[in-house]
């Protein structure tokens, strides 16, 4: 007979429980099984009969086990009492469930515990120190009453909690105990466990914990603190929880991860995971080398899952992630830059930008004819089409798709008042967008065009109106993008500093100075052109104050040497 | 909404007269069985691979409605031990495109079962589908108290013209149609039923580029823990009660979701389009099939150099076309 006794709480998949129980008894460990009262008598008696040939398996009194209720503690108590009484050689008692799977040879666990004869392995922390509580109930678990089931009567449960908070109703915690919480799967020494069970004040404690919320996570955790000489506050059972406090389930494909975890017992295994049961219950020899438990690798897999479920991938819109307005955590997945007026002012801006920054530079993605992808492509990453109708059917999807499909590679594109304006709010709200605007630059192509002046005047009026509206959006308090705007007059006066600033923020190049500037179009006569517009009764103001005498046009063509004010 | 649901239920009860049982093996359905529901018409060529695929996933029993096939579909299905077949020659359109029929059978046989409702050219992909049977998924959903599981329909297409390669019975259609569009899907929310409305993919890109509003919906909720009070509203795009359509997270997180690989765009499409156009029994006066028939004459090629070649579910998850959610 071994010095390790196993308590097993079972409510479903009884054949698996039997298999695991026999695995324990094969190494001489006695097993006391508690079967949930909710299991039908027929199933229960069949189960008992099936295990009848094994003298080391016993069955304890049955209780109804509800999640978060007292039943689980009561079940552990009666099973533990039976264990201590029926098997006097047992030194350590290990509480497990029917879905627990021993990962390492049982003898290793026995040896491990023999080396630590006085140690109680029970995760036990004060409420102030735990982070895993859900529903915001930590200290209040111990000071409020919980007569209603959280799963079945959520509304009553919440209402009663609220009521108690409002009225200041509190329970008194019995003298001498300090509430602790932790994993419900523990391994205690006979000394500690019997002290807890035979405590003269046990009735008081039981009465108190009966109305504590989730007492199975606090009853033994609190009371063992009273008697144990050496508490090692961790569970020997590997158990991972998702964001709602449900245990993660292990499947066949976790075999390697579990092997490498070096933990003694894992919870919980899917009952149909045949390969897992096969691997850990039968081919034990040499499956794992003796080592301290090291669940770090498996931890990462499961904490990633929790993060994916709660935060998700920024900028992804899909069938199971469609955030409400404001809950997006980033409207797009990667930073990108929007340039307005630059391509109008500089002759070879797109090429220059590509060479300077090494980013992917598109033309007017929201142009009226088509999405002008870089290099004149008609379809880019993710099979995104340049078709303007498709794009304008859902412009935000178009842009978030584009950024998602090319994530990892920074995208730049041109924008202007001639383009689809439906995207403005999205751009302004997106913290990944870097928007640089030279207001009024739309006048340059008009100025250089060969249109009738009446048409130019109409077009200018329209574009100015559109741009004014856009600037209003960009200046709104909701705008989260990094937005800069200059009037054309200001920009033309000293173009290098703003350029330097924008390029540096893109951050792909580390060169401290721009050595080569893009070529500015010839603006001589532009002041006159603006004056003509004014004379025709239109008031161009977006470009700032341009002198009519062409000082700019002549003055800035030979570039000043770029310098930067830090 | 309650009234709409009741009306649907009444409707499906009325339409049950259309259905005539051909092979009834429903007595074999055990309490925990996972079922599959499908409406078929002249799909004999697809069925062997279809049955094989879903048997391997762990479907225990198949419920088929044979809408007046004349290619031996009915006989083939009734020979299968794990299949129950009903025959009808009534109007597909007047049965709300078959939804009334399947609602009736679901109500009668699928109560309290997990049931997968798919067309014979749709192949269900879910996280870990290469290592875990479908029961692992449904057990996990049960544990999370989730009643429905969302997917997106992904149109698969071949590299050349659609009819260049001939599909043979029993063949994996994705040997021919291996390619898909990875990132051109457009989503809006349907305020009535709370489901998402997804459009895009190769059909929108090629067939509906001038009229994207008409492009077919790609959002599907095929896997449901059925209750006799539930109804599908339009195909498997949405259900009532509305809570079942909430298969997506609205606070930034990702719920677990899958995909339906759609093997429609292969050489069988041409015949199908012609036939369905003649019958005029499909949604929007078969507008979708009309577009196919018109454009198929030009031998359309869906493939482009930005098409993605299908490898496995992990690829889809990385591309953001499905998610593991908090299943690990």
TrEMBL record, chain A:
GO BP term, pick one? heparan sulfate proteoglycan biosynthetic process
Check the record and name the InterPro entries matching this protein.
DUF5927, Glyco_trans_14, XYLT
The UniProt entry lists the main location of this chain as: endoplasmic reticulum
This protein's superkingdom? Answer: Bacteria
Q: What keywords does the record list, in alphabetical order?
A: Disulfide bond, Endoplasmic reticulum, Glycoprotein, Glycosyltransferase, Golgi apparatus, Membrane, Metal-binding, Signal-anchor, Transferase, Transmembrane, Transmembrane helix
Indicate where this protein resides in the cell: Endoplasmic reticulum membrane; Golgi apparatus membrane
Domain spans labelled DUF5927: 267-566
How does the record classify its membrane topology? Single-pass type II membrane protein
Gene Ontology CC terms = membrane
Please name the GO terms that the record assigns under molecular function.
metal ion binding; protein xylosyltransferase activity
Output this protein's name. Peptide O-xylosyltransferase
Look up and give the organism this protein is from: Ruegeria meonggei
From TrEMBL, chain B:
- Check the record and name the Pfam families matching this protein: Glyco_tranf_2_4
Tell me what this protein is called.
Answer: Glycosyl transferase family 2
Protein's organism:
Ruegeria meonggei
């Amino acid at each position: 007979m071994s010095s390790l006794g196993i308590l097993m709480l079972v409510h479903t998949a009884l054949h698996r429980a039997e298999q695991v129980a026999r695995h324990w008894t094969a190494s001489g460990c006695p097993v006391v099984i508690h079967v949930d009262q909710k299991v039908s008598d027929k199933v229960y008696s069949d189960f008992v009969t099936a295990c009848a040939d094994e003298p080391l398996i016993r069955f304890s009194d049955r209780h109804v086990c509800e999640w978060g209720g007292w039943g689980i503690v009561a079940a552990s108590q009666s099973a533990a009492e039976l264990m201590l009484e029926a098997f006097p050689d047992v030194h350590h008692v290990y509480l497990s469930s029917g879905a627990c799977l021993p990962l390492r040879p049982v003898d290793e666990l026995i040896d491990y515990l023999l080396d630590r004869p006085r140690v109680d392995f029970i995760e036990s922390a004060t409420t102030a120190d735990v982070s895993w509580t859900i529903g915001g109930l930590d200290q209040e678990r111990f000071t409020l009453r919980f007569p209603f089931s959280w799963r079945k009567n959520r509304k009553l449960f919440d209402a009663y909690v609220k009521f108690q908070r409002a009225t200041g109703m509190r329970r008194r915690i019995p003298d001498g105990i300090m509430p602790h919480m932790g994993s419900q799967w523990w391994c205690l020494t006979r000394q500690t466990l019997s002290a807890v069970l035979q405590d003269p004040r046990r009735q008081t404690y039981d009465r108190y914990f009966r109305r504590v919320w989730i007492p199975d996570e606090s009853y033994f955790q609190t009371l063992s603190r009273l008697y144990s000489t050496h508490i090692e506050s961790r569970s020997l059972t590997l158990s991972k929880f998702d964001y709602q406090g449900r245990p993660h389930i292990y499947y066949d494909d976790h075999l390697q991860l579990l092997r490498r975890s070096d933990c003694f017992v894992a919870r919980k295994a899917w009952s149909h995971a045949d390969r897992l049961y096969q691997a850990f219950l039968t081919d034990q020899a040499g499956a794992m080398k003796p080592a301290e438990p090291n669940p770090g690798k498996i931890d990462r897999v499961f904490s990633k899952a929790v993060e994916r479920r709660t935060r998700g991938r920024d900028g992804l819109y899909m069938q199971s992630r469609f955030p409400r307005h404001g809950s997006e955590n980033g409207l797009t997945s990667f930073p990108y830059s929007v340039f307005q007026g630059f391509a109008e002012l500089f002759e070879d801006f797109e090429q220059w930008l590509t060479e300077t920054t090494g980013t992917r530079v598109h033309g007017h993605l929201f142009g009226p004819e088509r999405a002008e992808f870089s290099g004149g492509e008609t379809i880019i990453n993710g099979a995104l089409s340049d078709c303007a109708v498709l794009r304008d059917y859902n412009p935000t999807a178009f842009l978030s798709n584009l950024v998602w499909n090319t994530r990892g590679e920074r995208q730049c594109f041109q924008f202007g008042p001639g383009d689809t304006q439906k995207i403005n709010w999205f751009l302004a709200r997106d913290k990944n967008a870097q928007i640089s605007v030279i207001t009024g630059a739309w006048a340059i192509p008009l100025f250089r065009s060969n249109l009738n002046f009446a048409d130019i005047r109409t077009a200018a009026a329209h574009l100015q109106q559109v741009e004014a509206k856009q600037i209003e959006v960009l200046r709104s308090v909701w705008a989260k993008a990094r937005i800069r705007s200059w009037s054309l007059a200001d920009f033309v006066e000293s173009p290098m500093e703003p350029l330097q600033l924008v390029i540096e923020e893109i951050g792909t190049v580390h060169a401290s100075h721009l050595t080569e500037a893009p070529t500015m179009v010839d603006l001589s006569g532009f002041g006159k052109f603006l004056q003509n517009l004014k004379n025709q009764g239109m008031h161009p103001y977006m470009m700032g104050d341009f002198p009519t005498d062409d000082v700019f046009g002549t003055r800035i063509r030979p570039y000043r040497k770029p310098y930067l004010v830090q | 909404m309650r009234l709409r649901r009741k009306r649907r239920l009444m409707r499906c009860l009325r339409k049950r007269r259309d259905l005539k049982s051909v092979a009834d093996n429903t007595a074999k359905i055990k309490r925990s069985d996972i079922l599959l529901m499908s409406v078929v018409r002249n799909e004999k060529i697809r069925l062997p691979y279809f049955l094989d695929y879903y048997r391997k996933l762990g479907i225990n029993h198949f419920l088929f409605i044979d809408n007046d096939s004349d290619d031996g579909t009915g006989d083939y299905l009734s020979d299968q031990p794990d299949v129950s077949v009903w025959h009808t020659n009534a109007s597909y359109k007047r049965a709300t495109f078959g939804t009334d029929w399947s609602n009736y059978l679901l109500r009668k046989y699928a109560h309290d079962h997990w049931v997968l409702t798919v067309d014979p050219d749709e192949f269900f992909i879910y996280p870990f589908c290469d290592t875990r049977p479908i029961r692992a998924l449904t057990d996990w959903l049960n544990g999370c108290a989730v009643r429905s599981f969302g997917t997106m329909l992904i149109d698969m297409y071949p590299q050349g013209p659609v009819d260049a390669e001939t599909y043979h019975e029993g063949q994996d259609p994705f040997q021919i149609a291996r390619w898909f569009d990875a990132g051109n899907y457009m989503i809006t929310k349907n305020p009535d039923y709370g489901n998402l409305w997804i459009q895009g993919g190769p059909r929108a890109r090629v067939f509906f580029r001038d009229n994207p509003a008409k492009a077919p919906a790609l959002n599907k909720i095929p896997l449901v823990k059925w209750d006799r009070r539930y109804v599908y509203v339009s195909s498997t795009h949405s259900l009532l009660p509305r809570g079942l359509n909430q298969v997506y997270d609205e606070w930034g997180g990702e719920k677990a979701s899958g995909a339906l690989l759609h093997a429609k765009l292969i050489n069988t499409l041409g015949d199908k389009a012609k036939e369905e156009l003649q019958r005029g029994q499909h949604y929007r006066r078969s507008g979708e099939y009309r577009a196919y028939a018109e454009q198929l004459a030009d031998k359309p090629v869906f493939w482009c150099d930005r098409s993605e070649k299908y490898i496995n579910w992990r690829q889809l998850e990385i591309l953001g076309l499905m998610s593991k959610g908090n299943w690990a």
